[in-house]
Amino acid sequence: MTHQIRPLDDQDEPALLRDQFRQLLRYRALLAGGVAVGLLGGGFLALSGDDTYTATGEVQVRSATADPFATGASADKGINIGSERQTAVSDTVGELAAGTLLKKGDDVTARKLLAGLQVTNPPNTLTLRFSYTGSTPEQARSRAEALANGYLAHRKARTEESIDNMANGYRAQLEPLEEKRDLLEERTGVDAADDVSSARANIIVSISELSRKISELKALDTTPGYLNKKPVAPTEPAGAGLPLLLGLGAVVGLALGLLLSWVRLVFDPAVRSPRELVRSLGAPLLGTLPRERAAAGTLLAIGRSGSRLAEEYRAVAFRLAYDPSFAERRRLLVTAPRGDNAAAAAAVVNLAAAFAEMGRDVLLVEADLRTPSLARDLGPAAHEVRPPRWAAEEGDRSWPAGGRSNVDVPGSGAFALVAGTTADNVPRALTSASVGRIVAEADRPGTVVIVLAPPVLSYADAVALVDRVEGVMIVCDPREVHRSDLERIREIIGASGGSVLGALLHPGRGRLRRAERRPGSGRRRTGGGPGGPVAEADAPEITGNPDETMGLRSVTLPGARR
Prior knowledge:
By secondary structure, this protein is an alpha/beta fold.
């Protein structure tokens, strides 16, 4: 059966964001490292820097006016506050302030003085705010006041200079008129012509107008502004304190950690979420095993009361039973992507027990002929038994006709086990007629054949069995398998004529080992890996009662019923 994976749409975007955020939280070491670096940086800046103090004064700028109390008089007439702000930080103002400070015993250059000055303009005002940052409170106060007074002095001098220039220009125009007026007065008599009298009158009017303008210029109020707020010595250092710097450092460090986590997430080849696993494998997620499997004292979880692991295996078995593709063929090949195959071995044993609980005739075949372990994990074989009747007729003594075991599940039933044996020619053994006869037993009504194969990407053994079994289940740890591995598995199985029925996830080996070391987790296990062999004291008891019809030997688990 081909599983169609629904493409992501707009409704999946919130779920994707939640998945990505959870994936970022997986890299807790990077997040903690970023926060630690930010805290160290904030603490270093707070403790290593020298304390500085800032004093602030405010100057209200006004323009020169003849009568500030007259109706309609405006103090902002002709003032460009932006230009005034640039003037306040000019070298001329700095030199005036440096000269004033030198008289008070503070020898500082204009350039160094202006380096600690900041002039701002509050919106919609004619106010300039002088802020000076110094090493001591008194230094900050005196220098801020000197700079503000220097600006006012410079502006007043510039206004008075403009008035003097305009007055000198009017006087230059007035002198020729006065000389001409004097000449006309000498010619004026009783019989003077009318034109002479008229010219003299016009000149007198012009002289009067120029004299009035000069008088108005001299009467202007040249006050450049007022120091509304005198600078005072600050009582506390300026800048952010230790708590604020630590908070900012933590925020910046967290942002850095999130950035590093995102970069790590982008270049991480491992499967980052179940959604991505389903998309890469092209098959649904059948279940996720809890960590209980690591602390269990036996390979077989089915039959233990109150076991969450057993319930998860039962749920997976029911999902497979109702899968149309599996229900038609009743054959299942279980394998892992690569590496340790212990998790897949535990899965096949418990799935076989779960199907036995449903009343199915289950045949479990261990097709791992390189490192067979099921017989050792469930108990050492004690007796040779006769092969099945069809194998004796054909005279085939090679695997898997060598023998079977009957595994009793406590309170649930039993299933048949064909344990793997080491073979010199593994491909020939897997493609033999005996294997075909074993797999063909699933054609009988109510029979289920489950085959355990080595990791599909490590050996080609699973590929050799796909054409006979068809349905494949992948058992993997989502933190160890790569997306490229899942895509390759899907392509290999599809090209071999089979289909992936789904994936079964199990916890990582590191978490399982930590669970094994917890107090009260049971006896020390003799084997490693998830669902590995039981402790030697817990090994099942082997009885030698062969079944004459099937060629079975009985493997009785502790507490099992015959």
